Amino acid sequence: MQLQTAPLTQWWENSIPVAKHPLQKEIFYDTTQNKVVVAGRRFGKTVLMIEECIKVARTVSHAICWIVEPTSSDAREIVWPNLLNRLKYLGVKFKANNTSCSVKLINKHGNTSRIYLKSAEDKNLRGRGLDFLGVDELEKVLDSKPNLWEQDLSPSLVDRKGRALLISSPKKRGQIKQFYNFGQAEHPDYDPNWKSWKYLTIENPFIDKAEIEKKRKTLSPSAFRQEYEASFEDDADQVYIEFDTNIHIKALELDYKLPLYLSFDFNVRNMTTSVCQIVNGKKEPYNNEFNMLIQEQEKVVNVIRSIHTDGGVISTQRQCDEVINYLQRINWKGDIYIFGDASGTQHETQSSEGNSDWEIIKNNFTEAYYSIPTTNPRVRNRINAVNMKLRNAANEIGLFINKTGCEPLIRDMEEVIFDKSGRIDKSLEYKGFVHNSDNVGYMITQEFPVKKDNDVLLGWIKL
Ligand SMILES: Nc1ncnc2c1ncn2[C@@H]1O[C@H](COP(=O)(O)OP(=O)(O)O)[C@@H](O)[C@H]1O
Ligand SMILES: [Mg+2]
To answer: How far does Cα 265 stand from its chain's mean position?
Structure first.
């Protein structure tokens, strides 16, 4: 027996979808030539992009319209089926070329307009005579081609005074802010041909609020603000922005019943190891010695000791000796889990002993358990994971650093910054910074990875 289920209504199955989404509607009916929309994930940006593009293609005689996506799979798997479904629903006469992702359609004047889906991966993005240019997720598009707007895209709008719609989730120190400023009447860079909007994801009336609340728990507050609240987060350069000396530093005791976690980072100038334990977080909120209300995550990392060696002969063996020395001082007999920089196995930092870093470690800690991935996590993921552990968006703390014996790590937490290009400022390495927080990040990413943000957006699209 076949069950009869009522089909879900998809966004395109409506004569004017934007009419149901007041903020999309405001943007859609605005007639400014260049429009900029900064909005969090799942606000409805891509739907708006498709609707604006079809509007121009249907109303402008012989229109040529482009939508540029960050990757060809975004164009092919997300936008393309949505576009075709929408054209079909509207009853527009069109011919689609699946190979080039382009559509020829009959417009309201009875002649043909064309829509092309492009991506930042395309070799040539120098268009001519465009009537509409939509760039979706502009920050991601410009990530791979930073000069794309000035060099290729904006000149293509000159001949026919085409319309631009630039849409993006925000990014710290990204470029969309500059376009956004063009569209703000009170900003010194204001240009009356531009108008801009900034919205929160939760302002999408079609979004499940519970889903957003779930995300709060898995992202750090700053990542959440950036991704879901369209904040540019451009105020701070500090890498570990969730770190707060009044919250994260306290006197920690070893628990001899729990295992020790050692996390190593290998470098030419210095070697660093963090000695940590993972404990159950306290269930009830409490005030700490600074009278700050602390709520803890389910699992909490206690960094007991930060072992940093520099000066003299730097070697993996010397670092092992320092660590063994420390373990003897604390009379450690329990289990040891080891984490660290995966590339240690490849570049053999300064192992005069002829062994790779990891072989040396294994020879020194024969009884330990190892958790070394074959490749390192992406730096961004590692930083996010550490920030998330410091404090998640639900305001829960998941990392404490010992008041004594962890000075190198505390300095890193406070002082490691991003450089102008948004990467970790490596010039600080000379001062002995950077690597203490790196190593703790390897352990945290292994044990508490920031869950991949499985955007369900348009997931049903795989027809
Ligand atoms: N006007 C609309 N009517 C119905 N559903 C919509 C509308 N706009 C967006 N949605 C729904 O909201 C979700 C997110 O939309 P999308 O455009 O993919 O967001 P974004 O590109 O901002 O991440 C989709 O599931 C889409 O179906
Ligand atoms: Mg989108």
So the answer is: 24
* CA atoms of 430 and 111, how far apart (whole Å): 66
4-36 exposure pattern, b = at least 16 Cβ within 10 A, e = fewer: eeeeeeebbeeeebbeebebbbebbeeeeebbb
User: Which protein residue's CA is at the shortest distance from atom 10 of ligand 1?
Assistant: 44
At a CB cut-off of 8 Å and minimum separation 6, what does 406 contact? 249, 303, 304, 305, 306
Residue 441's CB is within 10 A of a number of other CB atoms, namely: 30
Q: Which residue's entry shows tokens 């005689």?
A: 61
Per-residue pLDDT of the chain (463 residues; tens, 9 = 90+): 334 444 478 999 999 999 999 999 999 999 999 999 998 888 899 999 999 999 999 999 999 999 999 999 999 999 999 999 999 999 999 999 999 999 999 999 999 999 999 999 998 898 889 999 999 999 999 988 889 999 999 999 999 999 999 999 877 667 888 899 899 887 878 999 999 998 877 777 887 888 888 877 777 766 777 777 766 655 447 789 888 888 999 999 999 999 999 999 988 778 899 999 999 999 999 998 877 889 999 999 999 999 988 877 788 999 999 999 999 999 999 999 999 988 874 555 555 555 688 899 999 999 999 988 888 888 888 999 999 999 998 889 999 999 999 988 988 888 788 876 778 877 777 666 788 899 999 999 999 987 553 332 222 222 2
E runs forming strands in 204-268? 249-250, 260-266
Question: CA torsion angle for 415, 419, 425, 428 (degrees, to 10)?
Answer: -60
| Ligand lying nearest the CA atom of residue 458 | 1
* The residue to which tokens 């009356």 are assigned: 192
B/e letters for 443-461, b = 16+ CB within 10 Å, e = fewer, are: bbbbbbebeeeeeeebeee
Q: Is 368 in the pocket of ligand 1 (CB under 6 A)?
A: no
Q: Which pTM does this prediction carry?
A: 0.56
Beta carbon of 398 within 6 Å of any ligand 1 atom: no
Closest residue CA from atom 14 of ligand 1: 42
Q: Provide the residues around ligand 2 (an ion) whose CB is within 5 A.
A: 45-46
Nearest-angstrom CA–CA distance, 168 and 164:
13
Residue 110 backbone zone (phi > 0: left; psi -120 to 50: alpha; other: beta): left
**Which residues lie across from 199 on neighbouring strands?**
39
> Residue 43 C-alpha to ligand 1 middle, in angstroms?
6
Distance 159 CA to ligand 1 centre (A): 32
With a 6 Å cutoff on the Cβ, whether 18 touches ligand 1 is yes
